[in-house]
Amino acid sequence: MSIETVYDFELPRGYVDSGGQVHRRGKMRLATAGDEIHATRDPRVISNPAYLTIVILSRVVTEIEGMESLAPAVIERFFTADLAFLQDMYQRINNIEPPTMTVVCPECGKTVRAPLNFTREG
Asked: Which of 6, 72, 79, 108 is the least crowded, having the fewest Cβ atoms under 10 Å away?
């Protein structure tokens, strides 16, 4: 079984480079724990927590039409519609579904999928 770790996207507006060329297509990879840890230690994030999104996206957006390195300064220049698009995509591709298991109701015999809870209560 293989897992998809890199996702293609197309920005709604596009990044406009210094030459005026618009770049819309790109790739985003799944985030790692290291990406989030690194971002929280960034001095820009420490002084301004709203900057967290910029730093994380600069790590997980791996390409914008041939631009292989996306420094936070590049992400800062994205239009707000494109930033919102990438934030939404980040949330969708990194969302981990809670584990479930098939169980049978002892009263009615109906089979259902139930979420697993690994926390100990009581």
From this structure: 108
Distance (Å, whole) CA 9 – CA 22: 14
Could you give the angle at which helices 52-60 and 80-94 cross, rounded to 10 degrees? 70
d(CA 81, CA 85): 6
**How far is the C-alpha of 14 from the C-alpha of 65, rounded, in Å?**
10
Q: Model-level pTM?
A: 0.74
For the chain, 122 residues long, give each residue's pLDDT as a single digit of tens.
677 899 999 999 999 988 899 999 999 999 999 999 999 999 999 999 999 999 999 999 999 997 867 899 999 999 999 999 999 999 889 985 656 677 888 889 888 877 665 544 44
